[in-house]
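Much of what follows relies on a compact textual record of a protein's fold. An example makes this concrete, so a full record is given next.
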Amino acid sequence: MTSAGYTAPMEDAFAARFGLAVLATWRVTHLLAEEDGPADAVVRLRARAGDGWVGELMDCFYCLSAWTAAPFALTVARRPREAPLTWLALSGGACLLERATCDPDERGVTDVLWEEAQVAGAGEADARESGRCADAPPSAATPR
């Protein structure tokens, strides 16, 4: 953006591609990790993956989003050196969307002050589980 408030068309195009790629990354990852798919195709795919590393990957939205974001990053990044950062940013955006859209019962308390008050009276195991979806890794805001 220039001092006159004008945004270059190149920057607008990148922002649009990036926004669409975040949404696409979330959608594909959510389909593979959480849904049955058309005609139960994804359920059958998950059953074939079994308990190996591919099966475990398909059970974790956050892990799967990193791999789902990779091809989208190649379409968004203009230069090869931008691809790794774009890849991580797309996965991070998909993870934020997942956190924002997951069931509040799975996410837990989102009010930080309320969470801290609850943690003060809870056991350590309860503290680790509060404030995140079932598969979410502990965050800096979640006491350990």
